[in-house]
Amino acid sequence: MDDKARVGERKTAPKSLPATDEALRLPAVTKKAMFPLETITAKPREQTPSVGQRATRHDGRLHGLGQTKYIDDMSFPGMIHAKIKRAGVAHARIKSIDVSEAERMPGVMATLVGKEIPVNRFGPTYQDQPLLADDIVRHAGDGVAAVAAVTEQQALDALEKIRVEYQPLAPIFDPLEAMHEDAPKVHMGHSNIYSSKTVNKGDVEKGFADSDYTFEGTFSTQMVEQASLEPHAAIAEWDPNERVTLHSSLGRITLGRADLARVLVMPINRIRIVATVVGGNFGGKNEITHEPILALLAKKTGRPVKGVYSREDEFISSTTRHPFIMKYKTGMSKEGKIMARTVRLICDGGAYCSWSDTTLSKACILSAGPYNIDNLRVEACAVYTNKTMTGAMRGFGAPQVCFAYESHMDDMAKELGIDPLEIRLINAFREGSLSPTGQVLESVVIKDSLLMATERFGWKEWKK
Amino acid sequence: MKHRGKGIGCMWYPIGFTVAANPSAATVKVNEDGTATLVTGTVEGGQGSLTVLGQIAAEELGISTNDVHVVSADTDTTPMDTGAIASRTTYVTGNAVQLAAAKAKEILFEIAAPILDVKPDQLVAAGRKIQVKNFPQRSLAIADVALQAQFVHGRPPIGTASYNPPTVDMDPETGQGQPFSTYVYATQVAEVEVDDETGEIDVIYMSAAHDCGTAINPMLVEGQIQGGIAMGIGFAMQEEMLFDGNGLQINPNLSNYIMPTSLDMPDLDIDIVENFDPTGPFGAKGVGEPTAVPTAAAILNAVHDAVGVRITSLPATAEKILRAIKQDRIAGQKELSTAG
Fold first, then answer.
1. How many distinct structural domains can be found in chain A?
2. What is the pTM assigned to this prediction?
3. Number of domains composing chain B
4. C-alpha pair distances (Å), A223 with each of A119, A193, B157
């Protein structure tokens, strides 16, 4: 439709909206909802004993009425807004960052670059991650500078005026290629492999020799984002005694406070973190992200500073689930008993370690599956690549290896002509079984769960 | 043509951190009217963990869920907690809460014992009363005891405790050790329908049987399982962060990064496997993460059963399945022609 037609259309529109439409208009200020003081309490909340009761959640009423206050619902007098500029290149050396033009933009009150952060390195296992990249950009979502302005839009506009000069470095994206000796290095050092784990139990060679059949399978999984409904959000505010308070969506406040103290070089007792009800975590909110940046911008401006990640920030700059490459080899008796297994796991760690070390450990231990395997060898490593860093996400490596060991199990069952339920019952842990790490397992109910779920499903009677 | 298939996925999963210390502390204060306040450093993630912790405190004190108000997540006021991670809240923080409540209860018992003319270890707390064991007629209201404790004896009933799951270091060469205190087990079974002309998977039905030790709140356990299955479906069939040749993500938004909605959810039957772990609070372990673990395996095994193709890389998108079906057919035809 051309402009003229649109103007014409507007002229023919009624001067004022009919009363019914007026009523539909949203008020400028939301009307305060009134609730009856007498709340209805569901019976299970009132009953004793309380354990085993289907008690409704204490926060359910707030959620139901839309009254839960998330970080983005909070506001403080004089509060301003921060935004972070993302690198947009996967691997480069930063030659210079010029924020002078951005600082002259309307509404801008302060900017921040990595070099201004007292200790610009953090991470739960290795401190290999900068809060804002100061020297080298290791993935496209790395922050390079931050802006605090009166409105969010002004901060976003100012990001456009930040000039960063990069010297491109060769990037590496494929974890297998990254393991080569001559591959470009994401971090300094001689290798991109930054964590290795092994589990050895019994005698694998003998186990394979005693097997009637040997099966192999290779499986891989993808990079996944936690995608919580509530993005990372925080507000930083200083008091005149040089004490900083952060309202944050962080899921681990005690350790978050220690991390803040370390990067800001402050005593722990001058830092307060208050968390709200978090709108979904799934592992994605287990470490500090922009909190120190907001604290420093708040200190520079003397104003409370709020930062809320956009959905794009969530994807490109926060942690994700590790892509895995998993090679399985299993020796089987003709009756369907697992005699020996070797597993090789390669975990694409992205640009920074984050929770990869823990993920690798868990994946390593769990990769055998809930099965009695006397002879087992698992070798696993995590590799840096120039992609979004991977970290904690619901399952810590378990969904990946479960997909592999259970697919592998069904392939073997089919070849041996054994029912998938049967082959699992033959091999499943029982009370007192030894885990891959030699631990005696207690309160083991894997067989009960197999029988319960398949009975409910009608596994035996089920027809195509 | 549409083909149906069934598949199993089962799993085991540990509770708490791998070897590393991951303590939680908690404080329980019994008020003058017999209600209580629980102070914890953990953060509610939307899963109902604070409700469960309140139920644990209430159980130890013999009062109801509603009698316990839970204060959480402020580093100035709440005690140390490793946080909502590693499916540890019910087990680790829960143990701390139970121990803290037991300490507060001990004070109440010491006040009540001489009045009831018994020793403190002969008392139990149940139904908002402090009763003589096996003799429930002889009892005092917790409210009365709490009031006396504070205003007559000057001993406010408060307890603080911490808990850290016991572990043994893993040998760096062999990995042998006790990395976790306890584990949970689960099975999910999927029924799918696969369209061999489009490659689309329809997950029709799933049954899930999860072990979490004692279910402190069965409704919240079911909620976790429903949510975990939704996340597992996304992992199995839809979600993937895609990058271009320069390492820039090409789908950093929810219109191109496809996640399951309520319309993608199958009919669900959920069972909680009866179990009791003596190391957990009232026998409880945990349930958070495991619910998302076996879903993809169950679905992909059902796809294999339906159309005979093994998808070895996730996500199993319609394109990937269609390609596998076509390759399978070509391979089948070749076999026929060489045999012929």
1. 3
2. 0.94
3. 2
4. 30, 18, 50
